[in-house]
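G., before I forget:
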Amino acid sequence: MEEFITTKDIHLYYGKKEALKGINLSFPAKGINALIGPSGCGKSTYLRTLNRMNDLIPSVTMTGSIMINGQDIYSPKMDTVDLRKKVGMVFQQPNPFPFSIYENVTYGLRIAGIKDKQLLDERVEQSLKQAAVWDEVKDDLHKSALSLSGGQQQRVCIARVLAVQPDVILLDEPTSALDPVSSGLIEDMLLTIRDNYTIIIVTHNLQQASRISDRTAFFLNGELIEEGKTKSVFLNPKRQETDDYISGRFG
Amino acid sequence: MKTKLQNNIAITVIRVIAALVVLILAFLLGDILISGIPHISWHFLTAASQSFTSGGGIGVQLFNSIYLLLLTLIISFPISLGAGIFLSEYAPKNIFTATVRMAIEVLSSLPSVVVGLFGFLLFVVQMDMGFSILSGAIALTFFNLPLLTRNIEESLRAVPDLQREAGLSLGLSKWKTVTKVILPEALPGIVTGVVLGAGRVFGEAAALIYTAGQSATNINFGNWNPFNSTSPLNLMRPAETLAVHIWKINSEGVMPDAAAVSAGSSAVLIIAVLIFNFSARVIGNQLYRKLTATK
């Protein structure tokens, strides 16, 4: 496996509490990677180390190294603004800006200084199409994103990330606040873009992980228990804990 | 049965108290408006005031009040915007921040007459600015600054953290996230606070008596050169405002129609403050709807 993201020996503390206990995990350049595990196991915390969102919490300290595309993202030279353009993130709760759909999708670009109306229009259409929400919103792009349903809002948030053309997309339980139909649309959408991005998705939904992901990593109590091709993790787990979790004996 | 009775008694008492508050307000407003409105005319609103004869108006005082209010906002808004953004978005939890907060609390609880006297000693006397619009505007800034800062800080804080994360995760810098995402979202709350504060400043008298002064010099509305002493825009002329005018008429007014002028001025002041209060709501709601495009 060619490693696009390599994390080595990640220890992370909230104050004195150790939330990640030495995680070694890598991801290939393209495809969908699922992080699974019970609540509080550290999978979301781990995800947030990849675009340095944990930097925002003052009590957090971290050791270890994370390389993305050959760059040490925790090196002092790393600009978090540049990093987050390359590593986009979608959150559990849809969080569109309270502006129009069009403005939501173009926000990252316009802030980056792109003014060319034609380019912006193209990017909006392309991103909304990729996010499988274009047909539903194309006639009222200038309506508030808040007037959409939760599922549509989440897809607009995904389009907003796609518009800045990142290499990596982090999704933190993106469908757990949505109905099954909307979740299905987002899963289908992820499958259509899997060849172009490194997608890392945290999910509580084991079926979702098994349906869409190429690789799966199982976290428990701040440790990485098992990692590998999704099929082998689900069908032939090597560790007893993985087997117990997947077969629903706990968690 | 007993608890039900207690409940009913409590609810009745609370309702009576609430009704009492509304009644007092209605009585006050009604009294001022009923005795004042008959004196309001176009002549009254535009004519210069008279010291010894009847038939004077409040034109100059009205202009002074509005001009002073604008100046106060021009000075205090940028400062409190900066302070509010700092406190809400950047301030770490340390002694410095705690001191700033404490200072704002203290400043907001200073009696306005003390602020006025301080302004008198420092600006009017020490810095030799005399009784002037500028002295008055600075005194009012002291008065307005803490409230405005707190309002802006709270409006910014009310924006959910999810929006900050959305901005940052999109590759926006912290500053861009604050100015392009958080600030626009907080704008309706900020505008409401500014307009409500404007209403308070408009009716303020005590802080102005010793700073902007108690005399309405004749100004020439045809002369808009701010460096000319008869120009309405001149910053260094003494400027009696509407609220100060009411205070002065009632303490030392000798014109024959003093009672009528006082009643009319009070009604105008009250109407202006009511307009500020209602428009604060309307503008805030409108802005919110416009920004979020919700119905």
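Chain B touches chain A at residues 92, 160, 162-173, 176, 180-181, 184-185, 291-295 (CB under 8 Å). Residues 88 and 153 of chain B are 5 Å apart (CA to CA).

More on Monday.
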